[in-house]
Structure formats: structure tokens, C-alpha cells
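Notebook, p. 212. Picked up where the previous page left off. The plan for this session was modest: take the two constructs that came back from the sequencing core last week, fold each one, and keep the raw output in the notebook itself so nobody has to go hunting through shared drives later. Recording the first one now, exactly as returned: residue sequence, then the C-alpha cell string.
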Amino acid sequence: MKFLLVFDFDHTIIDENSDTWIVKCAPEKKLPNGLRNSYRPGHWTEYMGRVFVYLGDNGVKEDEMKRTMTTIPFTAGMVDLLGFIGENKELFDCIIVSDSNTVFIDWILKAADFHKVFDEVFTNPAAFSSTGYLTVQNFHAHHCAKCPKNLCKKKVLKEFLDKQLERGVSYTKIVYIGDGGNDLCPVMFLRKDDVAMPREGYILEKKISQLAKDLRPVECSVLVWSSAFDIMSYLKLLIKE
């Protein structure tokens, strides 16, 4: 009996968006209008690439970025939840599927000593260039019309499950914890024994509600959370069953 926990990162594990938080490093803590207005829907990674060039051009170095990123608050109760999962790793496999990037997630998890809780992190690859600029790439290519160009979370989840099956690992239940519009695609992939946990008041919850109103409800159970203590209560019930 093993459960798979799938976490989004921004506004789920941390209570902010890591990509917009980095703007605190910019001169006057803001971006010029031309750069801010250059974002095109579905092309977030390219936009962040331009933001990182701007920061690099303004002399923002890796250590300053790291200091800034590790001040992001975790969502209420998340520290306790991750501690609980860490103590029960024999029951839970745990992955992150996020539109952030490897550098930010790595910094934040390591600073709080949570990197061991997660078996794998699927996010946009990032690295510092020889000139000290942070660069980011799209996670993969895909053909899903519903998702941003750089990342279809359903594809990531499906490929992970296929790989685990090849290793002889299957899950009693998948619990998907997220908040954003790009979490709907993987949630629609879940089956009736699985559970979607959308964050209360965020886009994912609204989209799931709208599907139910349109009489096209998701197949899995839906449990809304407002703090990570709600998630922990549910996981405690799950392992008692």
C-alpha cells in the first residue's frame, strides 16, 4: 500500500510565486513596463528568461538571488505537513510538478531541509551561465492544447506513473495538491479512487467547480484545503484506513 502525493510549488508549498518574488532583487524592486508587458500567454518561461537577463544586466548576483528566494514564506501548516510526510516516507512517494525552475526550488527546499521529502522534482531546468546570468529552459515539448507551451503536467504525471510501473511500483491512490489553472489538466487525468486537493479561493478550485456546474465533473474526489493542516488531517485518515 503506497500513496503518491503530487505537489505544485508556487502558492501551494510556498505562499507566493517564486518567479514574481525574484523581482525584489531588481532595481527599486520593480521591472520596467516594457519588460513587464512583454509576457505572452503560454510563454512564461521565455518571459522569465528576459527577466533574468535584466537582473544580470543590473549586476544582480547568484548569492543575492539565493538570499532573497530563501525568505519566501511557506504556506500555513506546510512545514508541519512536510515534516509529517518525511516521517512516513515508507507510505508516501512524493513529487513536485511545477512551472518554477530547478534553481529556485532547490534553494528553497534545501534551505528548509525538505529536499529529502521529495523523490523527484519536475520543473523547468535552470542554471547560471559562465557570466553569472541565470538561464531557464522549457521543461519539455508536448502536444496538449490546454497547457502552456513549456509544461503539460498531465504528461509529466503519466510518464512518471509509467516509469514507476516498469519498476514494479503502483499506487493505491494519487493525491494531487495544487492551486493553478495548469493543475487542471493532470487533475482531469485522475481516476475515481484518486483525490484532487485544490487550494481554496484559487483558480484550480474555481475551474473544478465550473466543470461540475457544466455537468462535466472530474472523475476523482475533490477536497478543498485552505491550510496544509487540512491536507495533513486527510493524510492521517488515509493511513488509518
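Okay, moving on. Second construct, recorded in the same format:
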Amino acid sequence: LGWKFYDADDYHSLENKKKMAEGIPLNDEDRIPWLCALHDILRREDSSRQDAILACSALKKMYRRVLVSGASAIASNQPEQPGENAALKILFVHLDGPIDIIAARLEKRRGHFMPPELLKSQFDTLEPPSAPENFITVSLEKSLPEIVLEIESAIFQG
């Protein structure tokens, strides 16, 4: 697509990375500043009329609201209304699959701070997207080309 790509893991604080490396799951307090920083990146790209892709484990509905609306989503528990700081238009892609497939992929990953042992805590935290969120669900049991095609189709359909 020629879009900028961001891996949210690159923006975790050293404290968050250390905590995960020690096998300690992150909590909301750990994640909120990270999500706000990611929102700021997306806001900057949007202001520059640049499309971007962010790979991010936005596990909870509240986390996705922060990505869309920034820190104000935490206090109000609602997306911002159109105006000066209008909510970003984000298509969330929920990559869905059985824990064993994801665990096998994590086992193959090298040099990452998050150990595979934390996967269960992520599944325990997960709140799959639902209406009225702007999302698609794509099965991880498909081939990589099928996954990419499904995501691209959803992007181009608006």
C-alpha cells in the first residue's frame, strides 16, 4: 500500500519491556501512556494526510477508544465528537485464531521481550471488537496472502 508502518512494541517504555520480559502481564496503568503515545503518532500521520498501519495488541475496547480519541476517551468513556480534535478514522483488524496457532508462532519469534508464557494473559484480557467499533475479523488459519487480500479489500471498500 505504500503506507507508513508502525510496530507498537517499539514504543513500549523500558519499564513495560522489562516487566513483560520477566513474565509479568501489563495492566491498564502500564498500557495507557503507551496507547496515548500511539494515538499521538496516528494523529500526526492523519494531520499530514498520511495513511498508516499500526500493529498493536489493542486488547480492550477502552484501549481502542484511546487509539481513536486519545486520553480524553479515558475520562469520558466515549469517543470524541467531531470538532477540533475529532476522533481518528481507524479500521481495526482483529486477527483471530486458536491459542495453539498463536502460541506456535510466538515460539518461533526470536529476540522479542514478550515471552510466549504471557499469551494466556492476553487472551484473558481480550475483548474482541464489536459494534459500533469500525473493525473486521480475519482468521489466522488462512494463508498469509489470503489474510493480506482480505485486509486490503476491507480498506478499499472504505
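Notes on construct two before I forget. DSSP finds seven helices and four strands in the chain.
Flagging for discussion at group meeting.
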